[in-house]
Amino acid sequence: MKHQDEYIAYEGECLAIEWYLDTNYHSDALEYYESLSDDARIKLLKLFKRMGDAGEIKDKTKFRNEGDKIYAFKPQPDRFLCFFYEGGKIIVTNAFKKKQQKLPKNEKERAVKRRVDYMKRVKAGKYYGK
């Protein structure tokens, strides 16, 4: 079983950013991140740092509300979908390479489902394991 700290992407002054874990403690968003080039990783980590330390990113080309309580970190050409959770957390649910103007419906649906799953498992005390 993985320890919660292994899935913290960035711990800032205002917010902590975590990778979403499925019931097998796997994160495909983290796996996607790890597959990126060093330059692409740095772009995302700069956005995580900005959000974690300041609590917001005003530039919509870098971070945007996608509706249904889903947001996107946007280090070009990648997208990292996420949601805010109580206690100063952002949970990164999934990631993909942007290939079109509109957010792909299946990616947003995946993020929404994972948000519901996360909240249900946290409330039941089954998310982080013991």
CATH topology: the name is YaeB-like fold
Sheet with the most strands, sense and barrel status: 6 strands, mixed
Q: Supply the CATH class.
A: Alpha Beta
Termini separation comes to 9 Å
- How many helices? The count is 3
- How does CATH name the architecture? 2-Layer Sandwich
Radius of gyration over all CA atoms, rounded? 14 Å
| Average residue-wise pLDDT | 93
Low-pLDDT ranges: none
Estimated helix fraction = 25-40%
- Can you tell me the CATH superfamily? RelE-like
Overall number of strands: 6
Number of domains: 1
Strand order of the largest sheet: 1-2-6-5-4-3
* Portion in strands: 25-35%
Q: Assign an overall shape.
A: globular
Return the string of H and E elements: EEHHEEEEH
- Helix/strand/pairing class, anyone? alpha+beta
Quaternary structure of the protein: single chain
Q: Which key terms come to mind for this protein?
A:
130 residues; alpha+beta; YaeB-like fold; 6-stranded mixed β-sheet; 3 helices; 34% helix; globular
Description:
The protein is of the alpha+beta class. The protein has helices at residues 28-35, 38-54, 105-123, and strands at 8-11, 16-19, 63-67, 70-73, 78-85, 89-97. The chain has a single domain, classed as RelE-like (YaeB-like fold), CATH 3.30.2310.20. It is built from three helices and six strands; from the N terminus they run ββααββββα. Strands 1-2-6-5-4-3 form a six-stranded mixed β-sheet. The longest helix has 19 residues, at 105-123.
